[in-house]
């Protein structure tokens, strides 16, 4: 874990520490309690400081409300590809922060890619103290475009720094946006910096890494160079199956 602080709000919206709750009864909100040792008074950090830091990390992770409940234990394996995906997700958690690879989940909509990515992020934030961040790639691009520094063509550090510096980054739905040279350049900046600093990156995409002739691949969308970089950085985890969200919705209609 790098322990580098993340400056400013995450790319999916502002996040702040909880400040409206009642002051801690042990320390009165100061963050320290007085203890007596060998007749001398000394201050030590109150347990509530750890709780506030944990809550701040959870908020800064910006996991969307739809996925905040996701856990590895709650992932339902429906076929061998799901079992392999879950096993690799658990491995990444167990090996953090010394693991060598992140995860690149590929597959159609509704097979659980984002569930697993969010679950790994949540586990590392809550149990390992990691500074994490979840962002949908298209939304990140829109925020970067909105906050471009006029005249310098340099994206706002407030938006890009958390993406580059997070111990654990989830880039959701890579390849869903229209590709332009600027998009490729921005993605290259993110992947290159995180690769060089050996920071954990989790990616989901609906596009396969390989496909029969005539079918689009992730490399077709982001280029061979960046696709190759992803293979260097991540376990490639193809996931198969029917759209779970559609199946649940159909079942609800029948009840």
SSE arrangement:
Layout: E1 32-37, E2 40-45, H1 47-61, H2 80-95, E3 102-106, H3 113-128, E4 132-136, H4 137-146, H5 157-165, E5 168-172, H6 181-196, E6 200-205, H7 218-222, H8 224-233, E7 234-238, H9 244-254
Parallel strand pairs: 3-6, 3-7, 4-5, 5-6
Antiparallel strand pairs: 1-2
Helix pairs in contact: 1-3, 2-3, 5-6, 6-8
* Helical percentage: 40-55%
Beta fraction of the residues? 5-15%
Order of helices and strands: EEHHEHEHHEHEHHEH
| Sheet with the most strands, sense and barrel status | 5 strands, parallel
- The CATH architecture: 3-Layer(aba) Sandwich
Q: Count of DSSP E strands?
A: 7
> Span from first to last CA?
47 Å
Number of domains: 1
Computed over alpha carbons, the radius of gyration is: 21 Å
- Number of continuous helical runs: 9
Task: Describe the protein's architecture and organization.
The chain is of the alpha/beta class and 255 residues long. The model is unreliable at 1-21 and 248-255 (pLDDT under 50). Helix 6 (181-196) runs parallel beside helix 8 (224-233). The chain is built from nine helices and seven strands; from the N terminus they run E-E-H-H-E-H-E-H-H-E-H-E-H-H-E-H. It is globular and about 80 Å long. It has a single domain (63-254), classed as P-loop containing nucleotide triphosphate hydrolases (Rossmann fold, 3-Layer(aba) Sandwich), CATH 3.40.50.300. The strands form two sheets. A five-stranded parallel β-sheet has the order 4-5-6-3-7, with helices on both faces. It has a two-stranded antiparallel sheet with strand order 1-2.
